[in-house]
Amino acid sequence: MDKYITGIAQNHHHKMLAIGSMPDHIHILIRHNINQLIPDLVEEIKTSTNAWIKEKKLSKFKFDWQKGYGAFTHSRSEIDNVVKYILSQEEHHKKRPFKEEYLGMLEKNEVIFSNECLFEFFNDINDWD
Known about the structure:
two-stranded antiparallel ribbon; single chain; mainly alpha; 2 strands; disordered C terminus; Alpha-Beta Plaits
């Protein structure tokens, strides 16, 4: 799926810097093409991959993306750190669950949010194998 999503981003003239998939979420770092809004790119990725996964029967479960997503910016000097972080997701989430990490990022960056606007977190995702 990572190559498929990379293709979508590149077709819209974004440069994929890193992509890392987990069973319940995905991290993508791109050099953003300002001619496409982030919500439009996210919608394209979700719509296209959803259809592709169903067509190729890549999941034994019913697959659908959640409605929400998070988008963050980083300074140029942090790109290497963010790439390393994204590429080490599997190891990273053995130590810190995604929900804890995501809520921590919101708090650290002083993002105001309401719980109703958060997407659903899956705590027992590893039990799905």
